[in-house]
Write a structure and sequence with these properties.
With 453 residues, the protein is of the alpha+beta class. The chain is built from 18 helices and eleven strands.
């Protein structure tokens, strides 16, 4: 059958013979993707992900999704490439690295070492001081420092354009509910599933965003394309390194405990995980940072593209002082529940309680404003932050608050942070790991918008 014109592509039944003349080869598509900035490219058949669908159903039934809608909303869709492009025959999968050098950090070295040096650079800073002396900072997961998905989509778009030029339909899907990207990448032979449920690429680890081009082009695939063998062996550092025990079995994440999901979830942040949250306000990288393949990665990209600033930390006092429009303009590309700035403030207040010094006037003023906020989500989490910082005096005016959420917060027992108790050692650096050590274990879990597969 001749290829349809690019302006009028036609659906092609997968069970009929087709003329493959003019169909781009795997090698050509890989070359196009690499030239467009992809670090790895592979091709897989577009058969439904039946095993993944069963996993999603079982884990949702067990409550492990924790209310997460991503890929759980319609698994019959997110596990069937044919619902992305009718008559789909192949998936071209691309991976693009998001490993970046933090501002002021020289290139070279592992991700975990780099983070520790950034924290050390803030050591000795006076809590609540000006930018030069280190105001309390909230940490952002690496994948969210900048919009890496925009670059990924552009790279995949070059592959889709080549397929469309040849007369076939092709659709880019990345970071949405249309397809479980990691399963597509696994089937394309890009990597193996780590015990933290991330996909790891041989020699370069998991510091990648993933996306696909689903097409009805009959791309000639090699027979029995090999999949990457498991490279984790007996290692379990990610399981042991999670501060909340969210990785309940190799490859299985309980989203109800995963910090990366909880900062994106609606409602009240679970009190039992607030100390473990530490200074995080969005995402969590810790189970990737303890992963040996990731620690061995030496490739570092020195700077973000021109005009695009990396954002490894956010000034907590600035965030709490900003209005809704400003917050959503700055951070709207993050997954903020219902695009409500209240959740950015919620996360910032918890981080403030874990890293700031409540005795500093700027911190006390921020707490006072939050405790008087008309939004009970903000008011309630400010109660926890103030008590954690030993400022019960600021909470006293809320004793008769009528809102049930605030009353629930008032009823919680919140111990003052150990370093702020009478006779304690000097305060830790703002933006550091205060509170995480109290949880008993270091670590965390990466972004879990993609359901464990």
């Amino acid at each position: 059958m001749p290829a349809a014109s690019p302006s009028h592509p036609r659906s092609r039944p997968v069970d009929l013979p087709v003329d493959t003349a003019g169909v781009p080869s795997v090698d050509e598509l890989v070359a196009v993707g690499r030239a467009a900035g992809l670090d790895a490219v592979g091709v897989a058949p577009a058969a439904p992900f039946a095993t993944t669908r069963r996993h999603l159903a079982r884990r949702k039934a067990a409550g492990l999704h924790g209310g997460m809608a991503f890929t759980y909303r319609r698994p019959e869709r997110s596990t069937d490439p044919g619902q992305v492009v009718p008559g789909a025959r192949a998936i071209v999968v691309g991976a693009r690295s998001y490993l970046r050098t933090p501002p002021g950090e020289p290139a070279g070295g592992g991700a975990a070492d780099a983070r520790q040096r950034v924290i050390a650079d803030r050591g000795g800073a006076e809590p609540g001081g000006g930018p030069a002396c280190g105001r309390p900072q909230g940490r952002v997961a690496r994948y969210a420092w900048q919009d890496h998905y925009a670059a990924l989509r552009a790279s995949l778009g070059a592959v889709a354009a080549r397929l469309k030029e040849a007369g076939w339909r092709a659709r880019v899907v990345a970071d949405d509910n249309a397809l479980v990207d990691r399963e597509a990448a696994y089937r394309a032979g890009l990597g193996w599933y780590g015990k933290n449920a991330n996909l790891l690429l041989p020699g370069v680890g998991s510091w990648f965003v993933l996306g696909s081009v689903v097409t009805d082009a009959p791309i000639a695939l090699p027979e029995g394309a090999p999949r990457q063998p498991d490279g984790c062996g007996t290692c379990r550092r990610c399981l042991d390194g999670c501060p909340t025990g969210a990785i309940v079995a190799p490859g299985v994440v309980d989203a109800r405990r995963c910090l990366a999901w909880l900062v994106q979830a609606e409602g009240r942040f679970p009190p039992e995980h607030r100390v473990a949250l530490g200074d995080r306000i969005y995402g969590c990288d810790d189970c990737q940072e303890v992963c040996p393949p990731n620690r061995r990665v030496a490739r570092r990209e020195p700077a973000p593209p021109a005009g695009e600033a990396a954002e490894p930390t956010v000034d907590l006092l600035d965030l709490l002082a900003a209005d809704d429009a400003t917050l959503l303009d700055r951070h709207g590309r993050w997954y903020v529940p219902r695009r409500q700035a209240r959740y950015l403030r919620r996360n910032a207040l918890l981080a403030l309680g874990n890293v700031a010094d409540g005795r500093h006037p700027a911190v006390a003023a921020a707490l006072g404003r939050a405790l008087a906020d008309p939004d009970p989500i903000v008011r309630g989490h400010a109660v926890w932050a103030a008590r954690r910082l030993g400022r019960d005096d600021l909470v006293a005016p809320l004793a008769d608050d009528p809102d049930p959420l605030v009353r629930a917060e008032l009823a919680e027992h919140v111990p003052v942070r150990a370093d702020l108790r009478p006779g304690a050692r000097p305060d830790p650096p703002p933006g550091g790991r205060a509170g995480v050590h109290e949880a008993g274990r270091p670590g965390g879990h990466p972004d879990v918008r993609q359901a464990p597969s």
